[in-house]
Amino acid sequence: MDTIICVAIITAGLVAFLCSGHAGVILVLAIFICIWLLCDLMKIYQYYRLGKDPEVVISSGQMPMRRGGDKKAAKVPDSMSEMAVDLERFRNKCCNLTLPSSLRDAQNLKCLQQKVLDCIKSLYKSETKPYLGEVQKLLRMTAPTKKDKDEARYVAAVCALKPELFLLVPPHCGNPPCILLRDPPTGFELWYEKLPQRCSQTPEEEAMRNLRESISAGRISSMRKVIDELYADRIEPTLNEVQERLRDRGWSYSDAQQAVLLYACQKDTYDLAKPTQNKQIVVLLKEPPRSFAGWAEGAGIIPKVSVPMESGFKSLLAAGRAPALRGGVAGAAQALQNISPHGSLGELRALLRAFILRGLLEYRDDELVPTNVLLKELDTLRQAPPRTPERKKSPGRIYSQI
User: In this protein, which residues make up the domain named DUF7602 (predicted)?
Assistant: First the structure.
């Protein structure tokens, strides 16, 4: 468009010069310059007010290109073919990894491939996605010798040599590499990371529905028991506390990391408090137990200690019957609860935190030990005579008045 205007101006100027002299040339040039500026103003109005970006047609026959430089692809790439290329590229990369001399023997290689197959099948049965790290961890746990444990490092290369049996999935979307089976076991159910199958809802709602339907009854029971235990212990059920207790119940690390999604699916039972600057996500019950007396341990909660608990703890220390307080506040509280069932786990944690804040306990390496201030109190407590319980005076009878 600009080129055409320039040619028209030059042509009109030559015609005016030949016909009418200098004044006509100036007049014609002024008219065409005004038209040129008007065209530019129209383009600016069209771009900024109407939201349209005029396309510039490329003379070479290519697709139109916008001013922003974004080219419209003439053909939309096939996502499935791209995925197949990525899988093949990742498998070739794993095939090029160097194997140790022990695995160059065909018999040893076949033996390790069978072990990997057994590990992946067990992960399938436990509804655990067979990430590369999970497979290696399971192999090392069952390995009888150090040599077998070292061979677990070459799982990806070993599986890449058996493409008819294993499917290696490269890392994507923040997930680690995964080893799938070409032929899944009979009765296998998909993991709870399902893609939406229906379009009647939004993708987020559909994904949450699939996730909720895929949770087994055993997992639902295990999740509820963890929250009930934390309520009974009066420990605020933050995400870290919940994940740690789920792992103690046999959950894998990857499953425990996604526990927050499983709790979020059950909106009728749980209420997830949003994280704040100094606080994690908290998994609360919609209907807490009637006997619940509030949190004794949690973020931002000032530890409060009852007089009987404080005197009982000091008596344990003075008598030398207190256990070694190792493993931080959580480990030390657990050790105390093992020998003294009085008080919940949250109350014992609050007791230890209060003693630390008051300068009565301090860390020495990984162990909590009494400070000099507390040692003096314990000496005084040892030297004090034992208290005899006072007998209640009964009114009795005045026999002289009988």
Answer: 206-294
